[in-house]
Amino acid sequence: MKTLDSRTALALVAGCLASAQVGKVPPALGAIRDQLGVGLIHAGWIATAINAAAAMLGVLVGLALGRLGAQRGLLAGLLLLGLGSALGAAAADGLMLIAARAFEGAGFVLVVVAAPSLLATAAADDPRRRRRLLTLWSCYMPTGMGVMMAVAPYILQHHGWRGLWTANALAIGTCVLVALFLKLGAGPGSGPRPVPVTMFSRARLAQPAPWLMGVCFGCYAAIWFMIATWLPSFAVEHMGYTPERATWLTALAVGGNILGNLTTDFWLARGVPRWALLAGVSIMMGAFGWFVFSAGYDPVLRSVAAVFVCSAGGVLPAATMGGIPLVARTPADIAIANGILMQCSNVGTFIGVPAIAALATALGGWDGGRWLIPVLAGIGVLAAWTFRRVALQPASDLAKAPGSSAGILVEQAN
C-alpha cells in the first residue's frame, strides 16, 4: 500500500506552508523593526501573534473538526493563512501586522489540527502506514521553517519583508487551488462521521495523557522557538555573525530538527519508554538552551549547542504526536487530542518568546533572561514523570474511567 496519495501529500504540504509562516518572521525581524519602528518586546509579539489563536482555540478547533471533518478544516485553514499573509504585506504599522498575524494564527491552528487527524484517519486500518505518515507529519515544522529561512535572505535582499509576505500568500494560494482541484472538503469523504455534541463530555477532555504530553510539548516549544526566533538577531549582536550567516545558522538548527523527528522510532523500537524520551529531551534542552544564551563562551561552541539542541529536540514532538493515536479510540478523539497538543504547544510559544525578551530587557541582558529556559525544562520533566505514572497505570484501573482507552497507555509507555 502506498504511503502517500494526493490528499495526504497535500496535507503534508499544507503543514509545511503553515510552519513557513512561523519561519518567515525571524530573518525579517530586523527589517520590520527598522521600517515600522517597533521595539524588542513588540517584535516578540509579532513573532508569536500567529500562535495566539492556536493557544486559545486548539481544543475548540479539535472539537469542531470532530463534527465538520478534517478536510474542510484544512481548506479553511489554508484560506485564512493566505488572507493573513496578504494583509500582512500591506500592514502600515506594527499593530496592523499583529492583527494580520492573528488571521494567520487562525489558519495555522486549523491546518495543524486537521492535517494529522486526516492522516491518522486515512490510515486507520493500517497501523504501520499510520505510523509512517505521522512520523512524516512530525517533520512539518522544521521542514517549513527551514526552507523558509533558507530562501528568506534572497527574497529580503531583493524584495524586502513585504515581498516575503507576498510570496508566501502566493504559495498558499497555489495550494488552495490544488485543494479545490482535488475537491478537498467536498463530499462524503471530507472527514470522520459527525459526532453528537453530547459525546463531547467532560470525561473526553479530562483524559490526562494528552494534557501531560501537551505540557511537555508546550515547554519544548517555548524553548525551541526562543532559540529559533532570537538566534538570528542574537548571533549578529552578541556572536559577531553577519545577518546572512546568522540566518543560515538558524536554518541549519531548525532543519536539523528533522533528524530528531526521524530518530524517534529508532529509540522506541529499542525499548526506550516514551516518557523517558520526553524527560530526556527536556533535560537536554534546558541545559544546552541555557548555554546558547550565555555570555563569555566561544561563539562557535554556542553555535554548535544551538544546532544540537534544536536538532536532537525533534525527538519530543514526534514522540507526542505519535502517541496521540494510542490514546484515542475514534477519529473524533484524535482531533480532540491533537487540539489539546497544539493548544499547549502554542501557549508555550506564545508566552515563551516574548517572556525571555521581557526578562532580558528587565534584567539587563540575555544572561538574565536565559534562566527561563531551565525553569521551563524542569516543568517538562515533571510532566513527563507524571505521564509515566499514567502510562504504567493498570489497564483494569483505566477501564473504570468513562471514555477511557483501557490498556492503550500501557503500550504507550514502551
TrEMBL record:
Stated name of the protein: MFS transporter
For whether the record's keyword set contains Lipoprotein, the answer is: no
Subcellular localization, as worded in the UniProt entry: Cell membrane
List keywords of the entry alphabetically. Cell membrane, Membrane, Transmembrane, Transmembrane helix, Transport
Q: One Pfam family for this entry, by name? A: MFS_1
Classify the protein's membrane topology as the record does: Multi-pass membrane protein
Name the PANTHER family on file: BLR6921 PROTEIN, MAJOR FACILITATOR SUPERFAMILY MULTIDRUG TRANSPORTER MFSC
Q: Which residues cross the membrane?
A: 40-66, 78-100, 106-124, 136-156, 162-182, 209-227, 247-268, 275-293, 305-328, 340-363, 369-387
**Organism ancestry:** Bacteria, Pseudomonadati, Pseudomonadota, Betaproteobacteria, Rhodocyclales
Origin species: Aromatoleum petrolei
Asked whether the keyword Membrane is assigned, the reply is yes
Q: Major facilitator superfamily (MFS) profile domain: which residues?
A: 7-392
Matches recorded under CDD domains: MFS
Domain of life of the native organism: Bacteria
Which InterPro entries does the record cross-reference, listed alphabetically? Answer: MFS, MFS_dom, MFS_trans_sf
